[in-house]
Amino acid sequence: MRNKADKPDPDALIARIASRQYGVISSAQLSSTGLTRAGIHRRARASRLFPLHRGVYAVGHRNLGNEGRWIAAVLTYGDRAVLSHRSAAALWGVRRAPKGPIDVTIPGTSGRKSRAGIVLHRSTSLTAASCTRRLGIPVTSPNRTIADLRPVLSPAQLAAAIREAEFRGLIDRGPLVADPARSELEQRFLALCHRHRLPRPGVNVRVDRYVVDFLWPEQRLVAELDGWKSHSTRSAFEDDRARDARLSVLGYRVVRFTWWQVQGDPREVSRTIRSLLRS
């Protein structure tokens, strides 16, 4: 017969669960440790539990990092909820963590309401195949995350996120070739090539581990189009140089043009390309 000393210590169990969840625990998990509702309230009054959202608490303190805030938002909506959109992009490392509300998606078209600090998305297309875990946090897959970003980011921001995801090896650029964020600039560049009677290049061609914007394979010439918003960050600067260096080692010449060069000085762009193709 078990005596009182044999019973598991609820606080030890709470600490164990919270340590795996960046200092956060749900009311359902608190109940699983043997705590009653009264026991939860007592700990909240004693500043041992801090309410974050309905049914979700921080353990010991409120000083949570991004991961703690993200998993708290997901726990609020139950087992089928996942981090999504801008918040998922930050978790995957393709966007900076937003300062505003946290994006969470749940399957279906009905259910719980949005709560303070959380933007709730409902989706009939959210399946197990489009969800995964990263750092222990339920999150949309990289491809699903990029798809969710399309309506909420500017074209330049979306292009930057896709580029970063590609560089990190999270996505295959193939299914994203029709991305509208890139298609307008690509169409302008292709129109420039046609207007100035340049050979038509291959578009979004894989070379080694990269997908280059434009390629003239016989001349081993690569043209990349850079927007300021997409390439002004330190990580983008470093990524571009590493990419160019690798392509150079493989015997390719890389030339880069900005949006404003393509749009504002197409004649000079065409002269540069023609000269490089001839040489």
Describe what this molecule looks like in 3D:
By secondary structure, the protein is of the alpha+beta class. The protein has helices at residues 10-20, 27-32, 37-45, 66-76, 85-92, 142-149, 155-167, 180-195, 228-231, 234-249, 259-264, 266-278, and strands at 24-26, 49-53, 56-59, 82-83, 102-107, 118-123, 131-134, 137-140, 202-207, 210-216, 221-226, 253-258. A hairpin with a 2-residue loop joins β7 and β8 (137-140). α5 (85-92) crosses α6. It is elongated, with a radius of gyration of 25 Å.
The CA-CA distance between the termini, in Å, is 89 Å
- Sum up the overall morphology in one term: elongated
| Beta strands, count | 12
Helical stretch count? Answer: 12
> SS-based structural class?
alpha+beta
Strand order of the largest sheet: 9-10-11-12
Order of helices and strands: HEHHEEHEHEEEEHHHEEEHHEHH
Spans where pLDDT lies below 50 across 5 or more residues: 174-181, 228-235
Largest sheet: 4 strands, mixed
Query: How big a fraction of the residues is strand?
Result: 15-25%
Return the average pLDDT rounded to an integer.
Answer: 85
Percent of residues in helices: 40-55%
Radius of gyration: 25 Å
